[in-house]
Amino acid sequence: MALQTVAQGALDLHKSSCEELQIARVYTRHQTQICLASGYNSGDDDSDEDEEGGKLVTERQYHGNGNKKFFKTYQILQAKGSLPCAERLIEEKHFDVSGVCRVDYHFGLGQPYLSRKHFYENQRMKSEQLFFVEDERTMKARKVGYWREYYEGGNTKTEKQYDANGIRTGFCKRYAEDGSLEWVKDYTKDYIERLAEFNAQRGKLDISVEEAAALLGFGSGQIPTEAAEVDRVYRKRCMPLHPDKCPDPDANERFIEVSRAREVLLKHLSSSK
Asked: Which end of the chain, C or N, has fewer beta carbons within 10 A?
């Protein structure tokens, strides 16, 4: 058995040997080995049983007239360490009394995106949203991609776009019922202009290595020796400057100083190697 990958560093799911992955408890199942010399009968094969944890559960409810009311399919996530047992949603549909699907959630296994679609009684789309689910157990999520609302006649009512951070981006628009454009804003253009202004202000700030270390909170005369240490202190200094925590309009100026200080220290460490 070769353990070269372990000796060299990190394991890799595709490059490390089966034995290494089993020893590390990455693989928790036995390797399937079958002798085909005497033939193979799938009905007699009990070498690879499914885990109970993969089982899906579907709940169904019906209106008094027999039409569908509610369908929900989920997978039970077993408790893991301090994490409690939870239901991992896969699909959920809500129907009106006439049997028309009015709300449809889809959260495919193996991917972090959950889509939600809302329909009018005439089955035309009312709205569609996309979420990036950060935690399958708590269902903590953020908006992502295109979000749209529609008029009952089918025309687009609003169109918004969100980036990977859950922030509006690109062109966002609002339309009148006849399809004419009523409102539009290019958020990306605003971000680019603000970014250029910020970087220009930061670039004008001339500080020494000692001043940069002091701005980040290092002790008198103390100069960091590792980039990781600079980044750790930088993140700590940034947290109280976030607009959600600090309404002070001068917080932006302080962040310019902190950002410039980090840049100066990282350049110093890079040049001293």
From this structure: C
Is-contact 91 107, C-beta < 8 A?
yes
Residue type, 139: M
Please give the C-alpha separations between residue 248 and each of 28, 89, 120, 191, 257, in angstroms, as whole numbers: 53, 41, 45, 21, 15
Q: Which tokens sit at 157?
A: 């009512």
> What's the full length of the chain, in residues?
273
The mean per-residue pLDDT over the stretch 174-202 comes to 94
Indicate the helix (H) or strand (E) that contains 23: helix 18-23
Name the pTM for this structure. Answer: 0.75
Task: Name beta bridge partners: 57.
Answer: 74
Q: At what angle do helices 251-271 and 227-238 cross, to 10 degrees?
A: 180
Asked whether the beta carbons of 251 and 237 are under 8 A apart, the reply is: no
Q: Give pLDDT, residue 33.
A: 78
Question: 226 Cβ partners below 8 Å, 6+ apart?
Answer: 269
Three-state secondary structure readout of 55-96: CEEEEEEECCCCCEEEEEEEEEECCECCECCEEEEEEEEEEC
Q: Which runs of consecutive H residues, i.e. helices, occur in 121-225?
A: 187-204, 209-215
